[in-house]
Design goal:
Layout lengths: L2 E5 L4 H12 L3 E6 L6 H4 L3 E4 L5 H9 L8 E4 L12 H24 L1 H6 L3 E5 L15 H20 L4 E6 L16 H13 L9 E3 L8
Parallel strand pairs: 1-2, 1-4, 2-3, 4-5, 5-6, 6-7
The protein binds NADPH dihydro-nicotinamide-adenine-dinucleotide phosphate.
């Protein structure tokens, strides 16, 4: 039975991944900041506590897997962070956003490399088109955009440094979740079904392709 570890799996896109991989017969490990409140996730997955801003816990979570094969890592946890960067407090919030969406995914992936190697596994980070510098025509969202751009740069290096494994950066589309909001056009089911097809086709290519949920290349 293949195994997937999904960081940030208690709601939204992460929960939909957990449901679908469980339905497809995978062993699913999902992380949540508050496992007691993650009943929907507990119904389909083994739940591990993880707050991505607690970097010690990120590495500990991986070492608890003690080299057991891992077929797929999905680094999904995300937050907008502060909308404006004007005060020192905003700056602290920006640093935390970077930690959650760039530093923690890299620590998690690095710590899980032996597990991924043992399964010829794949490491996927859920990024955003908002992390694309080419595609930024509307400004704003400095914390969120820069954290996703940092994730994109870091995941590319991981892919180059570990060329035997498949890596990818996936943009889920604008999705109906708490983050995406009610006006988002794309149902979570459609986004996640599309990303699962893309993940299925990933091969180790020594890069981390930046693809949307339909497999289209996103500009950097
Ligand atoms: P949600 O807001 O529904 O879910 C976000 C998830 O991230 C939750 O599980 C949340 O846990 C978790 N999370 C947030 N902060 C932390 C933290 N400090 N530590 C651990 N987990 C945390 O958003 P989506 O499902 O829409 O987002 C999933 C991913 O998709 C994110 O990376 C997002 O940036 C990306 N994305 C989403 C788009 C959209 O339109 N929805 C578009 C482009 C990218 P908790 O419940 O504890 O807060």
């Amino acid at each position: 039975m293949p195994t997937v570890l999904i960081a940030g799996a208690n709601r939204g896109i992460g929960l939909e991944f957990a449901r679908r991989y469980a339905a497809a017969g995978w062993e699913v490990i999902g992380t949540a900041r508050d496992p007691e409140a993650a009943g929907d996730l507990r119904a389909v997955a083994r739940v591990e506590r993880l707050d991505a801003s607690d970097l010690d816990r990120v590495a500990a979570l991986a070492s608890a897997r003690e080299g057991r094969p891992l077929d797929l890592l999905i680094a999904n946890a995300g937050t907008y962070g502060p909308r404006r960067i004007e005060t020192a407090e905003d700056g602290e919030g920006w640093l935390e956003t970077l930690s959650i969406m760039a530093v923690a995914p890299v620590l998690l992936a690095n710590a899980l490399l032996p597990n991924l190697r043992a399964a010829n596994g794949k490491a996927v980070a859920i990024t955003s088109r908002m992390g694309s510098i080419d595609d930024n025509n509307s400004g704003g969202f400095i914390a969120y955009r820069s954290a996703k751009a940092a994730l994109n740069a870091a995941w590319t290096s991981l892919a180059i440094d570990n060329a035997g494994l498949a890596f990818a950066l996936l943009h889920p589309g604008w999705v109906q979740t708490r983050m995406g909001g009610a006006q988002a056009p794309l149902p979570t089911e459609e986004s996640v079904a599309g990303m699962m097809r893309v993940i299925d086709g990933l091969k180790p290519v020594g890069r981390a392709p930046f693809l949307d949920y339909q497999g289209e290349t996103v500009p950097w």
